[in-house]
Structure formats: structure tokens, C-alpha cells
Amino acid sequence: MAALVRLVRRLSPRVQTVRFCRSNGHKTDDLLHNEAVQRHIKRVIDEQTGISSRLESGQVTESDRRALNLRLVEMSKVVHAFEKTQLALKELTEINTLIHKTSAEDEKMLLLLREEHEELSRKVEKLNKELIETLVPADDLDSRSVILEVAAGRTTGGDICQQFTREMFDMYQGFSSYKHWDFELFNYTPADYGGLHHAAVRISGESVYGWLKFEGGTHRVQRIPEVGLSSRMQRIHTGTMTVIVLPQPHDVDIHIAAKDLRIDTFRSRGAGGQSVNTTDSAVRVVHLPTGTVAECQQFRSQLKNRDTALRLLRARLYQSSVGRQKEQTHAARRQQVGTRSQSERIRTYNFSQDRVTDHRIGYGTRDIKEFMRGGEALEEVLRLLQENQEREALLKLVQNNS
Fold first, then answer.
1. Burial of 277 from C-beta contacts in 10 A (0-12 / 13-18 / 19+)
2. Residues 158-171: pLDDT tens digits?
């Protein structure tokens, strides 16, 4: 028994107290035990066997052989991941059997068995997640850089929204540093009292869109203002800000004809509307066929502002194009579960209760200041959103194939 061999290797004179996870269930078990998912895995295994047989027969053309080999690589990833999960589950079952057979008087052995049980439970969960990843087709956009914009809400909250927008901007800058991404500022329009009206940045690095695509939407803040009557009365104000996350297109993704553009120049403006530049270096680009607008006033060089505005415009047009393509596909589902688009509230930051709540997955966490530093706490909720998306994508895949 593999589990018993592992356990014997761990034996030592030292006895440690460990926590025993009494539940044999795993977060991913229900999904992988779903009948449709099981049938899908069986189809993949059967397809791998069939492809291997065809290749071994030698009765295929050279072009078919290349196509079959590519397909075999995809199938083999799933089968290999599935076999690893089955082996780990077998070991876990062996440990469970040993626990039930071990006398309560043998405390040292029970502690070691329970420690092994907990380690194997974590291994099974990890392998289950890897299996789900191999079953779900990768999103081609996940590896791309993004253009991220933050904008204060215009109808509610006033200074609360602008202050919160600046804090959100700082959070994404902190997260970029935490993930070792490049953070390139395109536009930054400050508000009075240290707030922020709007900012746009380009974030580049490994799998940026794969992480940040879940941040697009309306973020709500609830807090007591620092000054004024509401502060003295401890009255909670509510405000909103919006995050827009656009995968940055490659130049080949979308072509913009020069005749379809109108390019205006103007003087840069700072907080309160005062001019901060004596030359017309700021640039506004309008795509005439769609009315899409992008502008940049971050740099003193008009040429650099123009180039940046064009990059931002290209990303907005690309996102609009992708949205139109997906519109019909998601129409039926949207009527039942909502669009989860960027006009819907996705997360609430309640400073009075020191709590952050993500409404899409019912996730809540304390220590709001730590969360907004943009480190491990933000990474945790984004990882949970990734896993939730993979589960939904897998269920949709097996339903379409059943």
C-alpha cells in the first residue's frame, strides 16, 4: 500500500498534535462527481485510446497524423491529471481504513495517520483543481496585458467616491508590484482633497488579464466621512466607483483607418480645472464611425500623448467588438443570472465594519486596509473567482457536449 509506505517513512520519535479534518469531502469533489462531468472524462479517455490505436495502426495520412498527434497531446493532459487524482484518492482511502482499524490507545500512530490524512486531503484538492484546469479550454486573452481604468461615481457619494477611487488605484498599483508587473500610467485626473476623478494605466506581465478580468465592474464603498456633519454624527455614506479592464489587443486584432479618426489637442487640466501646461500637448482621439473617445494628457510630449490615446482607443474598440460577438451567446443566460457586466455592483468595501464582500461568490474577508494594500488578500479572492469561473465553464462545456 502506497499510503502505508509513505506513513512508515514519516515515523519518528517526535509526536506532534495536529488537527484532524473529519470531513472526507472536498470543494471540487461534487463537481468532479457530477454525472455529466464523469461522462465527459470517460469520453476523453475513450478518445485518447481511439487516437492511440489509429496512430499505431499506421493507416493514416501524414496530415491526419499531425492533427491526431496534436489532439492526443490535449487528451493526454486530461488523462494524466485524472490518473493522478485517482491514485491520490486511493491513498486517502487506504489512510481512512488504517485510521478506523487503529486502536484508540495507540495515540502516536493515530496522530501520524491523521497528519497523513490531512496532507493527502490537501493533495487531492490540489490535483482536482489541476484536473478541472485541463478540462476547461484556456482563454486566449488571459495571457494579455491590460488597460485598466478607474473612475469615480458621478451621481452618489461626492468626495467619498473620489477618495475611494484613489484608494482603488493605489490597490491595483500595489497588486502590480506584488505580482512583479509593469505599471505604466496613461492618464491621471486628480480631484480636490486628494481624491481621484479618473485614471488609466497599462499593466503588463504574466497572465495579467487572467487575474484582473474579474475586477471590471462597479465597486461600492460604505464609510463615515472624515470631516463634516456626517463625521460628527457617525453617519455612514455610500458611494461607488467603476473599474474597466480591457485586454490589450495586438496590432493585428483591429485595424483603424486614419480617415476614421479625428484628433484634437488641448491644454492639460489639473484638479479644479486649472491649467497645468502652457502648450496644447494633451490629445483627444475620436473614432468617427463609433463615436468612441480616448484621451491622454499625462505627458508633456504631444506625440507621446497621441500614441497613448491611440493605444487606449484600440483597446476600447477591441473590447466593443468582442462584446458584440458574445452578446447573442449570453443573452439567454443573462436573463436568469444577470450580465455581471461592468455596470453591476460586484464588491462592497464597508469601512465601518472592516469588511470586504464579493457578491459574485459570497466571499467576505476582514481587515479592509490589508485587502487594499493589493497583496495576498486580493490575490486570494481573485483566485477564488478564477476557480468559480472554471467550474461554471466546465459545467457549460459538459452540458453542451451531452
1. middle
2. 678 899 999 999 99
Residues of the chain with CATH 3.30.70.1660: 146-329+340-401
Determine how β-strand 282-287 pairs with β-strand 196-204.
unpaired
Nearest Cα to Cα of residue 260 among 314, 301, 320: 314
Angle at 137 between CA 357 and CA 322, to 5 degrees: 70
Q: How far apart are the first and last CA of the chain?
A: 37
The answer to whether 359 touches 381, Cβ cutoff 8 Å, is no
Largest CA distance in the chain: 85
Candidate ranges 19-28, 241-250, 313-322; pick with highest mean pLDDT: 241-250
126-152: burial string, b at 16+ Cβ within 10 Å, e else: ebbbbbbbbbbeeeeeeebbbbbbbbb
pLDDT, position 13:
38
Highest CATH level, class, for 146-329+340-401: alpha beta
Q: Mind listing the pLDDT tens digit for each residue in 209-245?
A: 999 999 999 999 999 876 554 555 667 788 899 999 9
SS3 assignment for the chain: CHHHHHHHHHCCCCCCCCCCCCCCCCCCHHHHCCHHHHHHHHHHHHHHHHHHHHHHHCCCCHHHHHHHHHHHHHHHHHHHHHHHHHHHHHHHHHHHHHHHHCCCCCHHHHHHHHHHHHHHHHHHHHHHHHHHHHHCCCCCCCCCCEEEEEEECCCCCCHHHHHHHHHHHHHHHHHHHHCCCEEEEEEEEECHHHCEEEEEEEEECCCHHHHHHHHCEEEEEEECCCCCHHHHCCCCEEEEEEEEEEECCCCCCCCCCHHHEEEEEECCECHHHCECCCCCCEEEEEECCCCEEEEECCCCCHHHHHHHHHHHHHHHHHHHHHHHHHHHHHHHHHHHHCCCCCCCEEEEEECCCCEEEECCCCEEEECHHHHCCCCHHHHHHHHHHHHHHHHHHHHHHHHHHC
Q: Going edge to edge, which strands form the sheet with 146-152? A: 182-190, 196-204, 146-152, 237-247, 217-223, 345-350, 355-358, 363-366
Residue whose cell numbers read 468559480 = 388
The structure's pTM equals: 0.68
